[in-house]
Design goal:
By secondary structure, this protein is α+β, with helices and mostly antiparallel strands. It has helices spanning 9-17, 20-27, 36-42, 51-56, 106-123, 147-166, 176-180; strands at residues 59-70, 75-85, 90-96, 129-134, 139-144. It binds iron/sulfur cluster (SF4).
């Protein structure tokens, strides 16, 4: 399987934000312009940042920058952290460097559900919770990863594959404020 045939949890996040981003990034191969915050997020980060999360989940181990793959889902991804609790529960954790939020945003919830599918296949376990740390608002949000959320992630993965395989530009209706914050708006004729 070619490298570019694999999808990523970021594709799922982008699809939930706006399906047209998949067309722009995966069919037209145009990439988001990076901001200083995004560059900062790519640098190696200090584990002390997630110390509160490690404490609240009573971690017994923390796995960092974990690369995973699923041939079945055609999916590959690297998660910031997997926190393994003393009850051997695997909790995916991501840091959102550039964002502020009081609760887990929907696109991030589906991204976490996709990481959960990868963890379940790679570690032979069942994921029930995930954590997102919104660094700008210093908010750690723990979300429940239900079976329904995982099913939804699988259905989104199928829809993404359809857009790529058929080179289909999806029709979208997106609220203006979302377009204003979209990193792909320079390429988008809808905007
Ligand atoms: S600018 Fe708006 S319509 Fe275009 S890709 Fe971004 S969110 Fe979607």
């Amino acid at each position: 399987m070619e490298e570019e045939d694999f999808l990523t949890p970021t594709d799922v996040k982008r699809f939930v934000y706006c399906p047209k981003i998949i067309y722009i990034s995966r069919v037209l191969h145009l990439e988001e312009r990076t901001t200083d915050y995004m560059e900062f997020g790519r640098e190696k980060h200090d584990k002390s940042i997630i110390a509160p999360l490690i404490a609240s989940l009573k971690a017994s181990r923390v796995l960092e920058d974990v690369e995973m793959e699923s041939q079945r889902l055609k999916m590959r991804g690297k998660i910031d952290y997997i926190i393994v609790t003393k009850f051997n529960e695997y909790v995916p954790a991501e840091i959102k460097w550039a964002e502020a939020s009081q609760s887990v945003k929907r696109d991030h919830a589906l991204q976490m559900a996709t990481y959960s599918l990868l963890i379940e296949e790679n570690f032979n376990t069942v994921v029930k919770r995930g954590a997102v740390y919104y660094l700008r608002s210093k908010n750690i949000c723990v979300l429940s990863i239900s079976e329904d959320l995982k099913k939804e992630a699988k259905s989104i993965i199928k829809k993404i594959s359809e857009i790529i395989d058929n080179e289909l530009e999806p029709e979208v209706k997106v609220i203006k404020s979302r377009c204003m914050n979209c990193g792909f708006k320079n390429y988008c004729l809808t905007f």
